[in-house]
Design goal:
The structure is a single chain. The chain is α/β, with parallel strands linked by helices. It is built from seven helices and ten strands. Helix 3 crosses helix 4 and helix 3 runs parallel beside helix 5. 37% of the residues are buried.
Amino acid sequence: MTAAYVVEDLVFSYGKHPVLTVEKLEIPPGKIIALVGPNGSGKTTLLHVLAFLLIPHQGRVFFFGDGSTKKNLLPFRRRVGLLLQNPYLFRTSVLVNVLSGLKIRGMRGDGARRLALAALDRVGLSGFEHRSAGSLSGGESQRVALARALVLEPDVFLLDEPSNHMDRESILRTEEIVRELNSEQGKTIILTTHNLAMIEKIVDRVLHLSEGKLCT
């Protein structure tokens, strides 16, 4: 079975200082993987590399068997849904935010609206479509960002601290969505979290990062 990701001899630096060094990492498809480690250990940087938003200075990243190149970065990015801990939302309505990715891909009209409303319902924000994104709490903003990712149906979901800013009900709903994406749709999910309860309930494998390196 072809791995979702294979990372080889990767080095990513800010300036002259390497902040992420990964000699070898293989992520099997259809699994839920947790990245854990202290703040500043390189977890978010690794997610951005796996989302093809940061280009490593050395090494290679293979995505479902294909090596990343300048020519396939955009197609690869479109197959990955990245949910940031503090997501950026446009200062428009919630619905416009969820529709934004579909619009970029050329999907508009009633079909796109139905998908967006269904995604909002799935994350527990039915009735929020006309709310201003600027009026949302941190947890609500994260759920809007999750809905925006869900409508695009990526092959991989990368979630950076998905339970941060969320109340218990929202965390449980997010865990349920992650389980469904994995068990029913076979999605590969990689998340960073300090939530030990979430790890115990839904994660298949835990990877530890410290000072930019994977711990064995």
